[in-house]
Amino acid sequence: MNFKSKNIKGLSLAEVLVAIVITNLIFAAAYLIYNNFQSSFDEQISLNEIKEEGRNTIKTIETDARIAGYRTTATEVQNPVIIQNNGLSFCFDDANVRKRVDYFLDVANKNLTRRIYNSSDCTFNASLDGTDIIARSVSSFSAYLTPTGNILDIKIGFLSQQGDLSETYDASFFLKNITYAN
User: How far apart are alpha carbons 144 and 161 in whole angstroms?
Assistant: First the structure.
């Protein structure tokens, strides 16, 4: 018998298996790169949310800090800034009504809450006028009044919703309506 060599076209089983392995390696590398980009993107979104929350919180506190001690009546505002454990209070006149605004950290729920009171003498015996949660996922809140009494330093720590990222914000406010007699 005479066998003639035929030109057989196609791939052998070994060549097909090598091609499948190489293709799988390429897809695995592409998935790892995509997954890495996705986690970086999610981390950036979380950081941006923390930063936005921090800016808004600082701005809200700044608004009240700037008017602390402001008065429309002849009566001096006593204790325009009160610093307490996990909290801070401002007292000022608003349209002939004395207001006290409290900021306090609800440690259990990790919320920074703002309460507004109508108060004739800025004491803690006042009628509640409103409550707002101004920041969520707050890990720490502290305030310090400088020895001159005109500069307020605050520090606020934030956590991401997942709890894996944290950021701390420091701010200083000049309290222009506060004067101390020598």
Answer: 28
